[in-house]
Structure formats: C-alpha cells, structure tokens
C-alpha cells in the first residue's frame, strides 16, 4: 500500500506528464489526521523523495527534513482544510490554459457543460494578491465557495477534491476547458448555457453521471 507521501509525489508528477504543470511550479497537499502533508518549496517534482514532503498542522506549524520548507502557498492549503471538511486534497497548477485566462483575469463561464465538474455554473477567478500571502488565501476562499476549482488572477489554478485522484481529475479537466475556452474566444463571444441547463447538469452529476471519480461522457 502506498504511503500518503508517495501518493502526493505521484500526483505531482502526473500533473507534469499530463501537461498541466511544469518544473517546480505549483504545489500540492493531502489531509492527514489533524493536519496535512504538503510539497516543499523549490524542489522539482521529478526529484522529490518521500522524506521531502513536509508535515503541517492546521495552526501553521511545520516539520520535516532539515533544510526544507513547505510551499510558500501553505496558507491557502491550511485555510481550505480548515474551512472545507469535504476536501482531502489540493493541487495548484500553472498550466498554459488556466494561466492564460488567469492573466486576463477571466473566469470560466458556462460555455461547456463540463464546467459543472467544479461544482457550480461557472469557475471563478480569484482576485489578485501576492503569492504566499494571507490576502491571496482570503481571495481563494471566496472564489472556491461551493466550488472544487478556481483560477487565480495573473497566476494559475487550484483544484480540490475528496482525494488526490479526484483533485487531479478536476485539474486536468479545468485545464482542458481553459484551453478550449481560450480558442473559442478567437471566434467571438461564445453562447453560454442557461442557468436552468447548468442546473440540470449539476443534478446529473450529483447522481454520478460525469462524476469526477468516474469516466466522463
């Protein structure tokens, strides 16, 4: 059976192989007992070992290998776990599609029914704040309310889930949606699905159709 540290490392490496993150960009975490495990700052994911993964408490204390520090974005990880008992994993990416839209300060509207994979009728873009700050974490909390993903203005994307598998599935799908929306915008203003149509999709998702832990149609 894999350790949680190994599962986290595998998820981070999958983000790179799936083309939704690169190098030392982004970060990830998974809930553990009364705290969480988080990737260290400044270590390429291909080089990560289980002993590099940091342990953090929900009051912001950390421990781990000497010379290592947790990701500079640990504040929004901590705050999401504090506020969202439904969340057990968090992935933050700097993918091409999501970063492009984020740099234009654009949310993802209901242009495609799979936007509902994030739990709402749109995927919001959190207001800009300096990376690693409490201000950014506060902005993320607002954009993630009743959602499983959000963009970060002039930055990237956050996906959350009940497991690392779910968070990764959502991150991959949101990156794909961002790239499609980016291309659709080249054709002009897209037609959007109505609130009623998106509500019907969300209801289907609640019954398992299109569930982020299973195959999408």
Structure summarized in a few sentences:
The chain is of the alpha+beta class.
Explain what the structure shows.
Helix content is 35%, strand content 15%. The protein is an alpha+beta fold. Strands 4-3-2-1-5-8-7-6 form an eight-stranded mixed β-sheet, sandwiched between helices. Strand 7 (149-152) and strand 8 (156-161) form a beta hairpin. The protein is globular, with a radius of gyration of 17 Å. Residues 210-217 have low confidence and may be disordered.
Distance between the amino and carboxyl termini: 31 Å
The whole-angstrom Rg is: 17 Å
Number of helices: 6
Strand order of the largest sheet: 4-3-2-1-5-8-7-6
Task: Outline the biggest β-sheet.
Answer: 8 strands, mixed
Strand content: 15-25%
- Helix and strand content put the structural class at alpha+beta
Task: Give me the count of strands.
Answer: 8
Order of helices and strands: HEEEEHEHEHEEHH
Structural shape: globular
Helix fraction bin: 25-40%
Low-confidence segments, ≥5 residues, pLDDT <50?
Answer: 210-217
Average pLDDT figure = 94
């Amino acid at each position: 059976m894999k350790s949680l540290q190994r599962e986290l490392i595998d998820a981070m490496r999958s983000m790179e192989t799936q083309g939704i993150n690169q190098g030392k960009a982004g970060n990830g975490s998974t809930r553990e007992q009364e705290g969480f495990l988080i990737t260290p700052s400044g270590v390429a994911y291909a080089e990560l070992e289980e002993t590099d993964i940091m342990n953090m408490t929900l009051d912001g204390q950390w421990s781990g290998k000497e010379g290592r520090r947790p990701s500079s974005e640990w504040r929004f990880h901590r705050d999401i776990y504090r506020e969202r008992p439904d969340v057990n994993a968090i992935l933050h990416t700097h993918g091409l599609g999501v970063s492009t839209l984020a740099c234009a300060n654009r949310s993802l509207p209901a242009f495609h029914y799979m936007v509902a994979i994030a739990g709402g009728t749109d995927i919001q873009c959190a207001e800009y704040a300096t990376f690693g700050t409490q201000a950014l974490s506060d902005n993320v909390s607002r954009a993630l309310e009743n959602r499983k993903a959000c963009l970060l203005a002039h930055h990237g994307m956050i996906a959350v889930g009940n497991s690392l598998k779910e968070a990764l599935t959502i991150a991959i799908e949101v990156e794909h949606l961002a790239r499609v929306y980016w291309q659709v915008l080249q054709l002009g203003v897209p037609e959007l699905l109505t609130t009623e149509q998106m509500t019907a999709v969300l209801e289907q998702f609640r019954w398992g159709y299109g569930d982020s832990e299973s195959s999408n149609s």
